[in-house]
Amino acid sequence: MTNPSQSNSPANSPIAPDETEAQRRFAQYRSTDPFPDILPALLNSADIYDYVAATGMIFPFDQKKLKSASYEVKLLGKCVYWDEDGSYKSEEIKEGQSFTLKPNSIAFVTLEPTLCLPDYIAVRFNLKITNVYRGLLLGTGPLVDPGFVGKLSLPLHNLTANSYKFRGGEPLIWMEFTKLSSNNRWRPSTGQTSAIGRNGQYKPFRNQPCDVEGYLHKADPHRSIRSSIPNVIQSAQLSAAESLKSAQNAASSAENATQRLTELQRKFTTGALIGVGLSIIAIVISSWGLGGLFLSTSDYLNNTREQNLDYKEKIKTLEQEIQALKKRINQLENSAKRSTQKPPATPKASPTATP
Predict the structure, then answer these.
(1) Where do runs of H (alpha helix) occur along 190-228?
(2) Quick one: average pLDDT of 313-340?
């Protein structure tokens, strides 16, 4: 396990042996360029090495992580994210400790080294090409400004349907360094070229040709690497179809209820007419003195009135049911329209990293 207070460079290396010495060198050369003869440009590996040795701008530093014009940086430190329930989570990713980036999620991770950028050097970075071909996206700003001191944290997006496991101490990004245009403020003195000797050696890029299938196989050989967005769209479409079906069923129920209501109203009207007719007959019979027949007819009339009252209650109940069904139909139709309007927007991909 690497001690963060010690450099990964050889014992006889001019790289600062500890963080205290790195900070001392930074204080000395923060606003004084030790190599004014190095022209403003994207620094090659030799220039990066010499500036790290002179200014302590990266600690800890591992010379083996240099490439022709970039430096490989590890994942190590605090990680912050929110789980599926929206609960805030914070954990320390230590050397060798695993961390899983779940599908369609984002985590804010920390990089290992402390950066102490002089006033004349700026930094840009992006994901290792393997992580790019996994379908991951790194939220990067346009620039880490000269003069920045501290550790970098960055948002890591997983826009795929896969889970990806990372371990503390594994390489995550490539970092590049750019020297700003000349300014007399940080020149050591007029006419002087380099304040100290040069020791850096250029690391030529060793190209390993590979097509897109090769990169994808290297990134994740056992699973398809695809966006989770189509699954979301499909789920929305299924939800819309189910809502439409529910709306159609509700409409059918409302139509049946309307037919029942019409039938009850017809029966109620018929019953009322029969009741009126029977009342007239009862009056006529009563005038003839047929008491027994009058009593029988009066009982039937009372029963008819009770049935009419029962029909009224049923009609009132059905009218309430119809109003509730109409309200439910409107809700389902609105839900179906919202589900089919706009699919989720596909986020723009991050610029491709240095292979």
Answers:
(1) 212-219
(2) 77
The residue with tokens 């090769």 is: 214
| Confidence at 2, pLDDT banded by 50, 70, 90 | very low
DSSP letters for 156-204:
EEE-BSS-EEEEBTSEEEEEEEEEPPP-GGG-SSTT---SS--------
Instruction: Give the burial string for 65-93 (b: 16+ CB within 10 Å, else e).
Output: bbbebbbebbbbbebebeeeeeeeeeeeb
How large is the angle between the packed helices 229-287 and 291-339, nearest 10 degrees? 170
Whether the CB-CB separation of 118 and 346 falls below 8 Å is answered with no
pLDDT band at 187 (very low <50, low <70, confident <90, very high): confident
Measured CA distances, 234 to 185, 344, 346 (Å): 60, 11, 15
The stretches of the chain forming alpha helices (DSSP H) are 19-29, 45-55, 129-133, 212-219, 229-287, 291-339
Q: Which residues pair with 330 in a beta bridge?
A: none
**The total number of residues written for the chain in this structure:** 355
Q: Given the DSSP bridges, would you call strands 98-101 and 88-93 parallel, antiparallel or unpaired?
A: unpaired
**What residues are paired with 70 via a beta bridge?**
67
Are 48 and 66 spatial neighbours (Cβ–Cβ below 8 Å)?
yes
Higher pLDDT, 185 or 99: 99
Phi-psi region of 343 (alpha: psi -120 to 50; beta: other; left: phi over 0): beta
The vertex-318 CA angle with 315 and 322, nearest 5°, equals 135
> Which pLDDT band holds residue 85 (cuts at 50, 70, 90)?
confident
Whole-number Å distance between alpha carbons of 50 and 41: 15
What does the CA dihedral 190, 201, 114, 91 come to, rounded to 10 degrees?
160
Sign of CA dihedral 81, 84, 86, 89: negative
Res. 192: pLDDT tops 70: no
Phi, psi of 279 (to 5 degrees): -65, -45
Looking at 26-40, 60-74, 126-140, 261-275, which range is the least confident one? Answer: 261-275
Tokens of 327: 């309200």
